[in-house]
Amino acid sequence: MEALAPQELVSVRDVFGIDSPLRAPMFAEATDFVPDIDPAYRFNREVTLALLAGFTHNRRVLLQGLHGTGKSTHIEQVAARLNWPCLRVNLDGNITRLDLVGKDTVAIEDGRQVTRFQEGVVPWAMQRPMALIFDEYDAGRPDVMFVIQRLLERDGSFTLTDQNRVLRPHPAFRMFATSNTVGLGNTNGLYHGVQRLNHAQMDRWNIVAVLDYLDPAEEASIVRSRVPDLIDAHGSGLVEAMVAVANLTREGFRAGDLSTLMSPRTVISWAENVAVFHDPALAFRLTFLNKCDESERGIVSEYFQRCFDRELEATFELDAALV
């Protein structure tokens, strides 16, 4: 039986390593819906405080940023340390109003066909101690967005018209969302398919936080922690060059020169593949370059050459003892 409410307040400084006197509510035990803790995760101070305000004071928090910055992961890692159950829903074009609200289904009981109402994601989650996370919030269909709008009120109820029921949210129900834009649509041409959001709905989000990519030194530290074989002096310089390439792809993406970029996850995969192939150039081609549009590979190769001071096409193997 899952707990109905958090049982204790914990120090934000002790749990998240953030210099703050705040205390946050925490459940005593984890359930199956609580994400696993990533011990190497690095928390952004401002974003973490915004998310903690959502958990502690039931504020609706929208987290915006480029893809690959770890928006959803940041919410999950905060929840993991608070033992707070989470449910992620990706608002892609396949999610419909019925998926969120629910629908009648036919079942066989005692040899007869009977109609039963099957709750959708929203009524199921809001009746439980649950953090409901809407991913790709700015890509949701208009009919889906209006289902969510009433929930954005702090004590927003939810009406099931087919059932003549009004649901009240559980005291430990929380709502978050992630988006690539701030509701203004695809103004810079980077994200096709996102919608221009209703201003009345955007106004209902109590807190809007922005998450950017990590500082290069922090990102390099994370990569080394995930790939211990690259911790030595030689590997350290290699990782810094890899992160430098990743940052150039991000700048190119923002400028519209590239249609894809290297996320921190991709950099980690690249480092892991370096440990496999002992060749940073080959690992780079297999990890990232082959995913790029053919017309953009020359730009990406130039980024590699600039950071490694050698042609991408040249094979250069590392001493196997070093990786």
Automatic annotation (TrEMBL):
Domain of life: Bacteria
The protein's name in its UniProt record: Cobaltochelatase
InterPro entries on file: ATPase_dyneun-rel_AAA, CbbQ/NirQ/NorQ/GpvN, CobS_N_dom, P-loop_NTPase
Signal peptide: none
Pfam families xrefs: AAA_5, CobS_N
Xref: Gene3D superfamilies: P-loop containing nucleotide triphosphate hydrolases
GO molecular function: ATP binding; ATP hydrolysis activity
Organism in which the protein naturally occurs: Arthrobacter crystallopoietes BAB-32
Domain Cobaltochelatase subunit CobS N-terminal, residue spans: 5-34
